[in-house]
Structures are given as structure tokens and as C-alpha cells.
Amino acid sequence: MVFDFLRRQGPVEAPGQKASATGPVVAYQTSGRVAWSPRDTVSLTRTGFAGNPVGFRSVKLIAEAAAALPLVLQDREQRFETHPVLSLVESPNPMQGRAELLEALYAQLLLTGNGYVEAVASETGEPAELHVLRSDRMSVVPGSDGWPVAYEYAVGGRRHRFDASGTAVPVCHIRSFHPQDDHYGFSPMQAAAMALDVHNSASRWSKALLDNAARPSGAIVYRSAEGQGTMSTDQYDRLVSEMESHHQGARNAGRPMLLEGGLDWKPMGFSPSDMEFQKTKEAAAREIALAFGVPPMLLGIQGDATYANYQEAHRAFYRLTVLPLATRVTAALTKWIAGHTGEPLMLKPDLDQVPALATERDAQWNRVAGADFLTQAEKRALLGLPAVSSDE
Predict the structure, then answer these.
(1) In the chain, what are the domain boundaries?
(2) Which pTM does this prediction carry?
(3) Exposed, middle or buried, 349 (CB in 10 Å: 0-12/13-18/19+)?
(4) How many angstroms separate the Cα of 205 from the Cα of each of 209, 215, 246, 248, 332?
(5) What's the rounded Cα separation, in Å, for the pair 190 and 196?
(6) Residue 248: pLDDT over 90
(7) What are the b/e assignments for 303-339, b being 16+ CB within 10 Å?
(8) In this structure, is the dihedral angle defined by the CA atoms of residues 163, 169, 174 and 177, taken in order, positive or negative?
(9) How confident is the prediction for the chain on average, in pLDDT?
(10) pLDDT, tens digit, 9 for 90 and up, residues 138-188
């Protein structure tokens, strides 16, 4: 049948298959049902990425840098200049290229802690197209052993279930480490949630000051002829209405105020606690950058002197953030594609073509080249290069 792949299939265990003893314990409450994500990723993405410049720039900076890394494909014997896997990665689908696909995948990992890639199989069963799926629409369906037996993709009221019980799984699930969840990854956005709230609140506070002549406006003191300081309800409502319509906002900046009898204006200035508010916002911005692993200097945050110069911060950004992420993701993609093709390959970033690591690369090549006690094969192994056959 054409729609047999939509039917729910139970987990098939091969004879003698080994499994973790804790799997049935993990699957006790979730077997055959959707394991829901513990955080509202939609709201967190809206406030931390679409509504916060520091979170937006951090995600874009990491995703674009990781997606732009040159990749090499090799096995234990050689590097491939041309290969079907390289062609698939370079042109994954008609609408995206390699950079667009990988940028979307890295961004999903940073925003939600989970990345999903779908493989569209050709007539021979090998992947013909790759598509990144939205993490907020995907759910894991665990089996009786605790491992996923299906992935459910929901859009509106329609759902599609991908069978994951076989060897060639149609969906590759890449997730970050989560110490308290067995099925979903932990996002840097979740770790920075409190700092994002502080930064967004500080921005709204600054916006409110701009709307009110960019300073605490002051106080209007009312003294009646009888010495009482209480206004009637109509008087109070009329005063508030005139203040909002004639003396607030950018278009009314500097407009003189006309006060009637009994009203006196007492201007106010910034208190020392108000002056510290901007420092709180800058500290929150540093915490957001810290959660994502981006040096604050690269985000233009003032007052940061952690690194001696911009070049050192740039090198640390690639070495500590971009390369570990790209290496882990490409290794997971290679293992997943190998399940379809049956060919053991390794797809990884080409460190020799990363400009930010040029200084480290030159120093390493000089050390290895000057080691006379090493053979050529040992030198190539130290540099991560495949072995050369004897006839070359």
C-alpha cells in the first residue's frame, strides 16, 4: 500500500540485540506516546531571537560561521574530491544550497537544542534530497526500550509519522546534551532565559524614558486654596489626559507646560540607582553572549576586556564554539547517511582552510615538519590527513 509508511509499527528487535538495562525504566511512562518538550520553544524563540538583538546576533554569528566552514569527505585511505555524498551536501534540495541548509540546522540547534534533517529517498533507497525540519513541530515517539521508534511532525491539525525502527532512519535527530531529559536537547536560549528577560525589560525601560522626554518627568504637586492636597476625580482625569496628549512623547519634547492655580511642578533627576540600570543591561548582554559561547567583544558590547585583541577573540570563538558544534553535527550527519548508503565515510570541517586558525595551523605544520624522528605516514596522521598508498 502507498500509505503503509503512515501506519504505526512496533519496535523490531533483532536476535541477540543488546540494549541498555535502564531503557524500559525510561520508557515506562512514554512508550508509544509523544514525549513533549519541557519548554515553550516558540515563545522563547520569539523573545530571545526575534525580540532581542544580542540573542539574534549570537545565533546568526555562530550559525553563519559554522555553515561557511569548508568540509572534506574522506575514509581511512583517501580524501574524495568528488563523491555522491559531497554532491548531496552541496545541493541538498532545489531550494537550498549547502550554506543555507547547514545554517538552518545550526540555528535550530542553538534555538531549541534539537535539529532534525529529513532524507528523501531515491528509487535505489539512497538519500536524494535533504531538508531541515522545524524543531518546534517535531516530537519523539519512544518505544518499549526507550529509544525512538518514530518521529511525529505536526503542522496545524495534520500529522505525519516517520518510522524510525529500521536501519535507514528517514530523520536524523541531532540534540544537545540535556541532563534532565531523555529525548530532547538543551538549548543555550534556555540557559540565557533570565538574562534575556532582564535585557528586554531594560530595553523597555529605556523606551519608556524616551517616550517621557528621556528622563523621569517629575511630580505635579496640588495645593488648593483651603490647604488640602486632594483633587476631585474630574480634575485628576482631566490633568492626566492633558499630560498624555500634550506633554509626552517625542513630538512634544521641550513643549512648555501651562499649570493652573494650585499646581506646582517639581522636576526630578536620575538617582544613583537609576544610573546603575544601564550597567545591569550590559551585564545581561554579557550573560547572553556567555551562554552562546560568543566573546562579547565580537558583539560590540562595550567595556569588555577579556581578550587582548579582536583577533584573539575571533580565534577563541572558532576554537571553542564554532568548531566543536560543526564537528559534532557533521559527524552525526555522516553516521546517519552511512546508514542509508552502507559506506563508512567521515565528513568534517577542513581546518586548513579556516582563516581564523591560520596562526595555529602554521605553528603546527612547522612543528610537525621539523620532527625528524617521525615518518611521513606519522606526520600525515598527526595532521589529520589520510594515509598515502605506497605506489603514490
Answers:
(1) 1-203+282-353, 204-279, 363-392
(2) 0.74
(3) buried
(4) 6, 11, 21, 15, 44
(5) 9
(6) no
(7) ebeebeeeeebbbbbbeebbbebbbebbebbbebbbe
(8) positive
(9) 80
(10) 999 998 888 899 999 999 889 999 998 877 899 999 999 999 988 999 999
